[in-house]
Write a structure and sequence with these properties.
The complex is a heterodimer of chains A (281) and B (993).
Chain A (H helix, E strand, L loop, with lengths): L3 E7 L8 H10 L19 E8 L6 E8 L7 H5 L5 E3 L5 E3 L9 H5 L6 E3 L4 E3 L5 H5 L6 H4 L6 E6 L1 H9 L3 E2 L10 E4 L2 H4 L1 E11 L2 E4 L4 E6 L2 E7 L5 E7 L4 E7 L6 E6 L4 E7 L4
Parallel strand pairs in A: 1-10, 11-18
Antiparallel strand pairs in A: 1-8, 2-3, 4-5, 6-7, 9-10, 11-12, 11-15, 13-14, 13-16, 16-17
Chain B lengths: L1 H26 L1 H7 L4 E7 L5 E7 L2 E6 L7 E5 L2 H8 L5 H9 L3 E5 L1 H16 L6 E2 L5 E7 L2 E8 L2 E6 L5 H7 L3 E3 L2 E3 L9 H4 L1 H5 L9 E3 L18 E3 L2 H19 L4 E5 L11 H12 L2 E4 L6 H11 L13 H8 L2 E5 L3 H4 L7 H11 L3 E5 L5 H6 L2 E3 L6 H14 L5 H7 E2 L1 H9 L9 H8 L3 H13 L2 E5 L15 H15 L7 E2 L35 H4 L12 E3 L3 H6 L3 E3 L14 E3 L9 E5 L11 H7 L6 E6 L11 E4 L8 E4 L18 E5 L12 H11 L3 H5 L4 H11 L8 H7 L1 E3 L14 H4 L31 E2 L3 H6 L20 H6 L2 E4 L25 E4 L2 E8 L1 H6 L7 E5 L4 E8 L7 E3 L45 E6 L9
Parallel strand pairs in B: 1-4, 14-15, 14-25, 15-22, 16-17, 16-20, 17-18, 19-31, 20-21, 25-26, 26-27, 32-37, 34-36
Antiparallel strand pairs in B: 1-2, 2-3, 4-5, 6-7, 7-8, 8-9, 10-11, 12-13, 12-27, 23-24, 28-29, 29-30, 32-38, 33-34, 34-37, 35-36, 35-38
Classes of the chains: A alpha+beta (281), B alpha/beta (993).
Chain lengths: 281, 993
């Protein structure tokens, strides 16, 4: 069983520097390589880039970037949509849209459920990131994006099927497993974008002096049961994270020497209950 | 005897010269081409005994005979045979030539162009056989270059750039540059390659930009001998002209200015940065040129240093760093000892230490790995906060000094400061303490006192102060650790930077784990290895305008140069100088704490007002405040001539009468060290994980008819008889070699090898010689032991090498230097004085209720790499494409957006009385409610109506910012004190509401 290329993207490690985006532009704009790719238009196309995502209200807001690119699917919809053998799956796992054979085949763009194929108006060809195959074929060990990524968010690796499956067991997963395309780009940390948090800050006031309440216990109650909890930090902040969105519940706040409070919350998206004074008993 | 021998030997050497030239012409096409450029008769002779030889160049052939020629086009005159023999016998040292010229022992006579041609031939004889670049098996050649965002390999095929990548070190280079740091049981080693920022990596797109200027041009309705139509600058179109026509106009205008108006009439206006390289940088070629013709000097305000230069240094010194702190040896100290890192208006992930790629990012990840807690104080959840996480404390712009005072109040109240340090290392604490506690009749500066001002909850301030007071803390104020950061570029900027020093004074600056910084600096690279940074001025010889006299001049002898014109204009008052005919300023003069107080006026006594502008480099529309003023100034008839030398057609270029197209650094020769700025930011290379010195190969020929800046200046000089003075008979590559020889690189690698390979990694410092942590010497009361040649010797107070630059030699809670300055807005005791345009501007807030902050951009380097049809335009956090136009991005809080009916991705108009800018809205929780965030430094200026009087859709946010200085007795810009309103754009092109 020969090894195949796979790309790994760690959401937690992406700083959003966009070096990978620029590197891929640099490689494909103004260049062309028969059998691999036609030149990318100077502007407009995104073949490879980290998309800015935001989660939750201030000051608990989190930022994450998610790589958007050709997933080099083992069961690629674009390959099925193409005629004339315009899209090929190489033995090393890389999906290539042949620029000459794919001329005029706009259905290849529409076939990609990830929106990763761009239409080149000028050359009338569908285009996607070809995994820098021409460079790998010349002996490059890393893809352009990985070469300029200092945080380790991007890794390209050649693995046999067992190794690839092992990665999945280690927590790497497809962006959209529901699509069933068997993508060769795997992600880690997507949970952050699929779940929600409930956050807030607790403080107290005594004689005009306000203080954060540290060490208070905050419990999320749903259907009468405590489903998650957190403890406030030195800033009085708590964040109950990794919750499945939907439904409603209540927060029970208990702190030593304070009255317990219960606050109803709706959980359709990440929320903050803001700054809340916890009165002394 | 020696004289007799020399007389006998000299004719032999002269015969040898002819033989050598013939041999070179046979072997090298470049030499052959140079010889064939013109016909000429050259005579080399001595003044004493008539020894000499003639050389005739005719259609590329060389003939020669004994004896001097009578009617030579070029005469090379040596005083005597001894001089001639010495100068023409290897090794030939430029030092000997310079001395011979200065002592009148060597002269070259003839038309300037002919003499220049002959000296180039002489130079080419030495260099024609040089080769460079690595040929790869796939037909590509790999060259080396350097950018504002990091060094690059440049792959070229068929004379076209294929790609650029960071430099992955060869095994040998990697091994000598390698180092490790051990801290808290872990060992860290940086990867063996250079890193790069997005703007550095995007250079291919701007080399081949659709906006490249490829030919000299003249405004269609500009006639140097007739109607000049200055009122049409920025409006009329251009026609292509030849280089000869363009250069003739520029040279004759320079002559006319000097003969008709006198000294001062020519203003040199330039950007604060340029394409990378010690020769190409403005401090070299441009300053050499300016000094050759005599220009009114544009005084740069320390833009990103404002609060530090005008404020902080009065409490702890560091004038030579414009008020920035010493940046040494912190990596090991921080990783081992620091427990908390407070980022205050500090976004190193966006500002990347100006030129340092992502070097600091790598080390901040180590800080995260060892568990150092991070806190971020900023109105914007900036890139650093977003990536590294930690508590985000939202603050209203311009109110930061109030928060700082409240923190210190808590420390005093709860005794959470270093009393011993305060007692022995500082002065004036009792007075400061009394002020904070309200014992001087002012309100006590409690957390509750500051809340209504800053918007930071009192409880959060108390929690922050306690945490900080209990933990060994690094304070990163601004992206470099000190300097940068929006808070120092506001009306309260000096107050804020001063507060930062006082905070550290209370916590024991220099003790283990207590320092300024965010690991942007302080790596264990060898800083004693000499290579000149750009502010050492290359071959400029400009002993007044840059740091050439400090180290480089002695190592690379060349002619010094001085500007004879004594007139100055502050950069941010160019419009007033032109429109009002008078203005005034305060200097950026880092020699002492006091020199900044020396006010100067314009026009200077006895000088001509400015009548011509020579504009060079990036646009000021995006970078100078209230910049609609500039458009109006350009259209003034008091400005008789404007020439713009630029690579791209953008910004100010369409306001010129004549346009001179320059090429990029990929199309010319240069030499440089990555990130090395010389005196502008001394030891700036201390940000790097590996010091990398590059020979910047000429990777491709200049596009179109564009020429290198050096060449353009030289070509103008030729017409003024100044070309030998300008270039000293040397080519750009000659100067590269001379700079190489002047540096320590030449002791490690041969010129030919360096030229071929293109880069050199400086060996890492020996472990037992690594720099000591900054301020440790001060905290321990020892002699200064960091490798910083500052302050000047006379600035030490009791004994050289001991204590700080302040008058007391200590950290001063109440500043001695400000006490004598009598600036009512900068009192010696750093009182909180609310911003003149901010949260207290009740009347203006009713009209313009939103505070605008405009920090340095993340994805472009000021105007560099922005616009131009380049790659970064497609980054949607930089610009967004709407209806075929790339609009600048403005960030607005969801509540503010909802109240105005503004949706994400829609076009909006940001406006106030000063201007209007059309942007795309990015609706985000990352920006505090009541605040709008849009980066400064758009390269594109695209007024929708009359320039200076209509809305701009290019994205020049600085059209909105005030021209007012932080305080009257400074030139400190304050763009982050700015109130605006924002609305969904309905197509309106006017400025008014």
């Amino acid at each position: 069983m020969s090894a195949k290329w796979a790309l790994f993207f760690d959401v937690e490690k992406c700083a959003g520097c966009q070096n990978c985006f620029v590197a891929v532009k640099d490689e494909y704009v103004g260049n062309e390589r028969a059998g691999y790719f036609a030149a990318q238009p100077a502007t407009g196309h995104v073949w490879f880039g980290a998309k800015h995502r935001e989660r939750g209200p201030a000051p608990f807001t989190e930022v994450a970037y998610v790589l958007e690119t050709c997933q080099h699917c083992d069961d690629a919809p674009c390959l099925k949509a193409a005629t004339n053998g315009a899209v090929i799956k190489r033995p090393d796992g890389i999906v290539i849209i042949d620029p000459r054979k794919a001329h005029g085949q706009k259905q290849i763009v529409d076939a990609c459920p990830y929106g990763a194929v761009s239409w080149n108006e000028h050359s009338q060809t569908p285009q996607a990131w070809p995994f820098d195959a021409h460079l790998l074929d010349e002996g490059w060990r890393r893809t352009r994006g990985e070469q300029v990524c200092v945080t380790g968010a991007l890794m390209s690796m050649k693995l046999n099927d067992a190794g690839f499956e092992q990665k999945k067991r280690e927590g790497w997963r497809e962006l959209r497993p529901d699509l069933g395309t068997k993508a060769r780009v795997l992600y880690r940390g997507l949970e952050r974008l699929e779940t929600i948090f409930v956050a807030g800050s607790l403080e107290t006031e005594q004689g005009g002096v306000r203080d954060c309440v540290q060490g208070a216990r905050v419990e999320l109650i749903r259907a009468g049961a405590v489903v998650a909890s957190a403890t406030t930090d030195a800033f009085g902040d708590f964040k109950i994270d990794a919750l499945a969105p939907g439904g409603a519940g209540a927060l029970r706040i208990s702190a030593v020497g304070r009255e317990d409070q219960e606050i109803p919350v709706t959980l359709d998206r990440s929320i903050s209950i803001g700054r809340r004074i916890v009165p002394a008993t | 005897m020696a004289g007799f021998r020399d007389r006998a030997a000299f004719p032999v050497v002269l015969w040898g010269v002819a033989q050598a030239m013939r041999a070179a012409a046979l072997a090298f096409p470049a030499f052959r081409a140079k010889i064939a450029e013109r016909d000429a008769l050259v005579s080399i002779e001595t003044r004493d005994a008539g020894v000499g030889r003639w050389y005739r160049f005719s259609r590329g052939r060389i003939s020669s005979g004994a004896g001097p020629a009578d009617r030579a086009d070029v005469r090379l005159l040596f005083k005597d045979s001894e001089t001639g023999l010495r100068l023409l016998t290897p090794p030939m040292r430029h030092f000997d030539y310079i001395n011979a010229i200065k002592m009148f022992k060597l002269d070259i006579v003839g038309e300037d162009e002919a003499t220049r041609w002959f000296t180039e031939i002489a130079s080419l004889m030495m260099t024609a056989h040089w080769s460079f670049g690595e040929n790869l098996s796939n037909g590509e050649t790999r060259y080396v270059n350097d950018t504002n965002g990091g060094p690059v390999f440049v792959y070229v095929k068929d004379a076209k750039i294929v790609r650029m990548t960071p430099i992955e070190f060869e095994v040998e280079e990697a091994a000598k540059g390698r180092w490790s740091i051990s801290a808290r049981g872990r060992t860290f080693t940086p990867p063996p390659q250079t890193s790069i920022s997005s703007h550095g990596l995007s250079n291919k797109s701007t080399v081949y930009s659709k906006d490249r200027l490829l030919y000299p041009m003249k405004r269609v309705d500009f006639d140097p001998n007739g109607a000049r139509n200055p009122q049409n600058r920025g409006i009329s179109g251009y026609e292509r002209i030849t280089w000869d026509e363009a250069l003739d106009i520029v040279a004759s205008e320079i002559r006319r200015m000097k003969t008709q108006h006198g000294n001062g009439a020519i203003l040199s206006s330039h950007s604060s940065h340029h394409t990378w390289g010690n020769l190409g940088y403005y401090l070299c070629s441009l300053f050499r040129f300016n000094n050759a013709i005599g220009t009114t000097k544009m005084v740069i305000n320390p833009d990103s240093w404002e609060g530090w230069y005008w404020g902080a240094m009065h409490h702890y010194g560091y004038s030579m760093r414009n008020g920035a702190a010493e940046p040494y040896g912190q990596l090991e100290d921080c990783l081992e000892n620091c427990e908390l890192m407070v980022f205050w208006s500090s976004d190193p992930e966006a500002t990347t230490g100006s030129y340092a790629g992502l070097e600091g990012t790598i080390r901040r990840l180590w800080a995260k790995e060892v568990g150092i807690e991070m806190i971020h104080i900023d109105p914007y959840l900036n890139s650093t906060a977003a990536f590294f996480g930690g508590k985000w404390i939202q603050i209203r712009p311009g109110t930061d000094p109030a928060l700082a005072q409240a923190i210190m109040h808590v420390w005093i109240d709860e005794e959470l400061y270093d009393k011993d340090y305060v007692a022995t290392r500082t002065t004036g604490f009792d007075e400061w303490r009394a002020h904070l506690l309200g014992e001087d009749g002012t309100p006590p500066k409690t957390p509750e006192w500051q809340e209504s001002e800053t918007g930071v909850p009192a409880s959060v301030v108390r929690a922050l102060a306690r945490k900080w007071g209990a933990k060994r803390t690094y304070l990163s104020c601004g992206g470099k650790g000190t300097t940068f950061g929006g808070a120092n570029r506001a009306a309260t900027g000096a107050q804020w930077a001063r507060s930062m020093v006082l905070l550290m004074a209370m916590q024991g600056l220099g003790k283990p784990g207590v320092n300024f910084g965010c690991l942007q600096y302080g790596t264990p690279v060898d800083l004693d290895f000499y290579f000149p940074g750009y502010a050492e001025g290359g071959f400029s010889g400009d002993v007044e305008g840059n740091a050439v006299a400090v180290s480089l001049y002695q190592r690379m002898p060349h002619l010094i140069s001085m500007n004879s014109v004594g007139q100055r204009v502050p950069r941010l008052r160019i419009p007033e100088a032109i429109l009002d005919g008078k203005t005034e300023g305060y200097p950026t003069d880092p020699r002492s704490l006091e020199r900044q107080f020396a006010k100067f006026g314009y026009p200077a006594p006895g000088h001509s007002p400015v009548r011509m502008m020579f504009k060079y480099g990036g646009s000021h529309f995006g970078t100078s405040m209230d910049s609609n003023r500039l458009a109006k100034a350009y259209q003034s008839d008091s400005l008789e001539f404007v020439v713009n030398q630029s690579i791209w057609n953008e910004g100010e270029v369409p306001f010129a009468d004549v346009i001179l197209p320059a090429c990029t650094n990929f199309e010319r020769w240069d030499i440089s060290e990555w990130a090395a700025a010389g005196g502008y930011s001394y030891h700036n290379e201390g940000q790097l994980n590996h010091r990398v010195i590059t020979l910047q190969h000429k990777c491709i020929e200049p596009l179109g008819e564009s020429r290198s800046d050096f060449q353009i200046f030289l070509d103008i000089c030729k017409r003024l008889g100044l070309s030998s003075y300008f270039a000293e008979g040397r080519t750009e590559l000659d100067w590269c070699k001379m700079m190489f020889e002047a540096s320590d690189v030449s002791r490690h690698i041969s010129w030919r090898k360096f030229l071929k390979k293109g880069y050199f990694v400086v060996p890492a410092e020996k472990e037992n010689l690594r720099q000591k942590p900054a301020y440790r010497w001060f905290a321990e009361g020892r002699k200064k032991d960091v490798p910083e040649p500052h302050p000047l010797p006379s600035e030490y107070r009791e004994k050289f090498g001991y204590g700080l630059q302040t008058q007391s030699g200590k950290l001063e809670f109440v500043s001695s230097s400000l006490a004598r300055a009598n600036d009512p807005e900068r009192p010696a005791l750093n009182r909180y004085i609310p911003s003149w345009e901010g949260v207290r501007s009740t009347e203006l807030l009713a009209k313009y209720p939103l505070q605008l902050i405009s920090p340095h951009p993340r994805y472009s380097f000021h105007t560099a790499q922005d616009g131009k049809g380049g790659f970064v335009n497609d980054i949607d956090e930089h610009r967004m494409l709407v209806d075929g136009w790339y609009y600048w991005v403005a960030r607005i809080n969801p509540a503010d957006a909802a109240a105005r009916g503004i949706e994400h991705g829609r076009l909006v108009r940001l406006f106030n009385d000063r201007g209007a800018v059309i942007c795309t809205a990015m609706v985000t929780e990352r920006i505090t409610q009541g605040v709008v965030h849009a980066f400064e430094s758009s390269a594109v200026y695209a007024p929708l109506g009359k320039p200076g009087e209509s809305a701009d859709r290019g994205g020049c946010i600085n059209q909105l910012t005030p021209k007012r200085f932080q305080t009257d007795m400074t030139n400190a810009s304050a763009p982050n004190s700015c109130l605006i309103e924002i609305e969904a754009w309905d197509g309106k092109t006017e400025i008014a509401a």
